Amino acid sequence: MNKLKIGVLTLQGGFDKHIESLVKLGADVVKVREAVTLESIDGLIIPGGESTTIIRLLKNFNIYDSLRQKIIEGLPVFGTCAGMILLSGGITSHEDQETLKLMNYKVSRNDYGRQIDSFDAELSIKGLDGSPVPAVFIRAPRITEISETVEILSEFEGSPVMVREKNMLAASFHPELTDDIRVHSLFLSMVSS
Amino acid sequence: MSEKLWSQRQSAQWKKNVGLAEMLKGGVIMDVVNAEQARIAEEAGAAAVMALERVPADIRQDGGVARMSDPKMIKEIQEAVSIPVMAKVRIGHIVEAKILQSMEVDFIDESEVLTPADDQYHIYKHDYSVPFVCGCRNLGEALRRIGEGATMIRTKGEAGTGDIIEAVRHMRTLKEGIRKIQNMPNAELMTEAKDLGAPFELLQEIKETGKLPVPNFSAGGVATPADAALMMELGAESVFVGSGIFKSDNPRRRAKAIVEAVTYYDDYKKLAEISEDLGAPMTGINCDDLADNEKFAGRGW
C-alpha cells in the first residue's frame, strides 16, 4: 500500500502532537495552511486550539469554501476539540459563531468548564478492542443536540464524545495528547477504506 | 535510555496543563486592560488574552509598584470572551496565585513585569491545579521554572518597549543552550547542570529530545507583524503581545495582522500584504536607553 498522505490544519492550535501521532503510524504528514494543499492529501485532521481563531483564519485566507467542498466531496476528516466545533452544525452556547456546518450535531463550547475543570478519562470506543482508551478533555465542547444520522462511537457521562458521520470523525477530547495511537489508527483505516 | 523521561513521570494534572499550552501554539496572546479590549482581541483572532490593569508600557511610565489586577476587572474579562483568560502575579506571590486560582483563570503568568514579591524564591507551581507560564532569558532560567512546575515558558524580551532586540537575544540564547546540551557527552551533563543552576534530569531530557518539555513562546517587544514572524522564525511556538497592540494607532487592524503573521510567518508575500496600512505602531523605547535597573528582564532568580 502507498503511504497515506495526511494533512494537518496548521492555522493555529495543537497540531504538533497530531503530527507526532501520525508519524508514529508511518503516515506522510502535510501541513495545511493553503486551500491548494487540500488537493494533494488523502485525509485531514483539524486539531484543537481556539475555534474562534481558526474559523477567522479559514475565512480571511479563503480556505473555508474549498475545505467545506472537499469534505462534502468525500475527503476523510477528523476533528478534535476545536476541530469538533468547526465540523459541527452549530454552537448552542455561541450562536453567532460560524462553523463549517458539515456534521449533524450541535455543541456547547467550554461546556465542562475552564482549564481548572479539564480532566482525564478512560473511554471505550466502538471499533477499538482491548484496554480502554485514555482521553484528555481540555476546556472541551459538549455535544448538546445530535441527529440519528450521526453514529456515536463513544460516550462519557451520558454525552457523546466521539462520533462519526460518513467520511467525518469528531472527538471532543485529545487523543494526540497521550501515547495511545489507536484513535489515529482508526482514522487512518477510515482514510484507506 | 530505558528509564522514562522527566516529563513522562509528571502528574496527569501537569500533562493536562501542558496540553492547554499545546492548544495555544501558533497563536497570539494579547494583553488587555478591560472587557472591550478583550472583545477586540477575540474578534481579531487572539488565542488567549492576558488580563492586566496596565499594559507594560504604562507600568514603565507610571513607575511605582505593579501588582495583581483587580479581580473585578479579571472577572469582567472572563465574562466577555470565550477564549482562555490569563492573569499575572508577582514573582513569588503565593497568595495572589491562590486568589487567581480560586477565580479559575486559565493560566497564571508569574511575571517579571510586575514588581517581585520575593527576591529569592519563585512559586512552587506543582502545588497548584491551574497552569503557570514563566519568563526566561536563557536555558538555566527556563529549566528552573519548569522544575518548579511551569507548563509553558516564554522568553522575556523587554516588555513595554516595542523594541524586539531583547526578545531576539533571549530566544537565541535559549536555543543555543539547547543545541549545546544536545551535542554534549553524558559525562559533561552534571557539570553543565551545576553551571546553569538547572535540574540534571531536565538536561538529560533535552539531550534526548532536543527541546524543552513544555511549549516555548516569546514575549516582550513585539510591535509589528514582522516582529511576531521573526520570533516564530527563531523558534517561538506562539507570541505574547503586550503594549504593541493597544498602544498602536489602530489596535483592531494590528491585532488581526499579528495573528495572521504568526500563522504565515514564513510566507513573505503574505506577510507583505498583512503588514500593509496598519497605521503607526507603538512609539517604543530603545532598550539601549534603559538603565539596568529600568529593565524588567533581570527580575527572576
Short characterization:
The complex is a heterodimer of chains A (193) and B (301). With 193 residues, chain A is an alpha/beta fold.
Number of helices of chain A: 5
Q: Which whole number gives the mean pLDDT of chain A?
A: 97
**Biggest beta sheet summary of chain A:** 7 strands, mixed
Second CATH tier, the architecture of chain A? 3-Layer(aba) Sandwich
Greatest chain-chain contact: A-B, 37 and 37 residues
Oligomer: heterodimer
Q: Give the termini distance of chain B in whole angstroms.
A: 31 Å
**Strand residue content of chain B:** 5-15%
Adjacency order of strands in the biggest sheet of chain B: 7-6-5-4-3-2-1-8
The H-and-E topology of chain A, N to C, reads as EHEEHHEHEEEEEEEEH
In percent terms, what proportion of residues of chain A is strand? 25-35%
Cα-atom Rg of chain B, whole angstroms? 18 Å
What is the straight-line distance between the termini of chain A? Answer: 12 Å
SSE order of chain B: HEHEHHEHEEHEHHHEHEHHH
Counted beta strands of chain A: 12
Biggest sheet layout of chain B: 8 strands, parallel
Could you say which overall geometry of chain B the principal axes of the C-alpha atoms support?
globular
Helix content of chain A: 10-25%
Kindly list the characteristics that best describe this protein.
heterodimer, A: 193 residues, alpha/beta, Rossmann fold, seven-stranded mixed β-sheet, three-stranded mixed β-sheet, 5 helices, 12 strands, 24% helix, globular, B: 301 residues, eight-stranded parallel β-sheet, 8 strands
Fold blueprint:
The complex is a heterodimer of chains A (193) and B (301).
Chain A: E1 5-9, H1 15-24, E2 28-32, E3 43-46, H2 51-60, H3 64-72, E4 77-80, H4 82-87, E5 90-91, E6 105-108, E7 119-123, E8 133-137, E9 142-146, E10 151-156, E11 159-165, E12 168-171, H5 182-192
Chain B: H1 12-23, E1 28-32, H2 35-44, E2 48-51, H3 56-62, H4 71-80, E3 85-90, H5 94-102, E4 107-111, E5 132-136, H6 139-148, E6 152-155, H7 165-182, H8 186-196, H9 200-209, E7 216-218, H10 225-233, E8 239-241, H11 243-246, H12 251-263, H13 268-274
Parallel strand pairs in B: 1-2, 1-8, 2-3, 3-4, 4-5, 5-6, 6-7
Helix pairs in contact in B: 2-4, 2-12, 10-12
